[in-house]
Specification:
The chain is about 45% helix and about 20% strand. It has six helices and six strands. The protein is globular, with a radius of gyration of 14 Å.
C-alpha cells in the first residue's frame, strides 16, 4: 500500500524553473565535488523553514542527522553526475530512513539546484505550491544534504519524515 502511494506521488512530480535556481519536488568524495557535511547550511535552512512554519501556526521541525546523511548522499550523487537531477531512488532513501529510525511515518522530499544560500533555497521552495506543501506538511523531522559540483552548481536535497 505504501509502495502504491509512493508511485502515485511520482506521477504528480513536476519541474519548476526559476532563474537562477531550479527545483523539483515529489510527495553524501571526489576532488571535484565539495562534500562538507553541510551542518551550518542545514541549520540555516531549518531556521528559515521553522520561521515559516511558526508563521503558519505549525510545530517546528527537528534536524535529523540520519535524514541529513541520506539527503547528502543524494545531493552528492546529483553533483557528481552519478544520478540526474531528480527523485530517482526516493523510495529506497525513505526505506533506509524508516529502517534506521525504526518507523514507518509519512515522508516527502524537495530538491533544488543552482541557488547558493539557505535563504535562496527556502524562498525557491516556498515559491512552489508543491514544495510549500511539503514544508508545511505533517512532519516532525527534516534532513538536508548539500553538495557542489565541479562547475560550482549547488545541489540541495531536503527530506521530511513523520516519526510518531
Amino acid at each position: 500500500m505504501i509502495r502504491t502511494a509512493l508511485k502515485k506521488t511520482f506521477l504528480i512530480v513536476f519541474l519548476l524553473l526559476i532563474a537562477p535556481g531550479r527545483a523539483l519536488f515529489a510527495q553524501d568524495s571526489d576532488n571535484d565535488i565539495e562534500s562538507t557535511d553541510g551542518t551550518a547550511m542545514a541549520k540555516d535552512v531549518l531556521h528559515y523553514i521553522n520561521q515559516h512554519r511558526r508563521e503558519k501556526g505549525l510545530p517546528p521541525l527537528q534536524l535529523s542527522p540520519v535524514l541529513s546523511a541520506i539527503a547528502r548522499k543524494h545531493s552528492l550523487n546529483m553533483a557528481s553526475g552519478a544520478e540526474p537531477f531528480g527523485h530517482q531512488g526516493f523510495e529506497e532513501r525513505i526505506a533506509a530512513a524508516w529502517m534506521q529510525l525504526h518507523t514507518r511515518g509519512a515522508a516527502a522530499e524537495n530538491i533544488a539546484e543552482g541557488v547558493t544560500s539557505a535563504k535562496a533555497v527556502v524562498n525557491l521552495w516556498l515559491g512552489s505550491k508543491g514544495h510549500r506543501k511539503n514544508i508545511e506538511g505533517n512532519y516532525n523531522l527534516m534532513g538536508l544534504g548539500v553538495a557542489t559540483s565541479a562547475n560550482g552548481t549547488m545541489y540541495f536535497t531536503q527530506v521530511f519524515l513523520y516519526k510518531p
